[in-house]
Amino acid sequence: MSVKNSSATFTAIPCLVWSDRHAAMALGTGVKKVQELARMKLLPGFKVGRKWWFDPEAIYDWVRSNGKPKESTECAGAARV
What we know:
Distance between the termini: 74 Å
Strand content: 5-15%
Order of helices and strands: EHHEEHH
CATH topology: Arc Repressor Mutant, subunit A
Radius of gyration: 18 Å
CATH class: Mainly Alpha
Helix content: 40-55%
Largest sheet: 3 strands, antiparallel
Number of helices: 4
CATH architecture: Orthogonal Bundle
Structural class: mainly alpha
Number of domains: 1
Shape: globular
């Protein structure tokens, strides 16, 4: 019986949920702020035990509907000066 090496056909599994650290990096803010927004039910997420988890698509939708990219708010502030 021979075993074929399947490493050549291996495909990466996409990340289906983000930790609070991943969400914070994607949003350009701190972990504590992400946890606070989730606790206040302003940011879509769920808690398993002591850890917060986030659906990346829900985060993207939240940014599209509520949030603005960090760069655009900084540019707007710089334009007023």
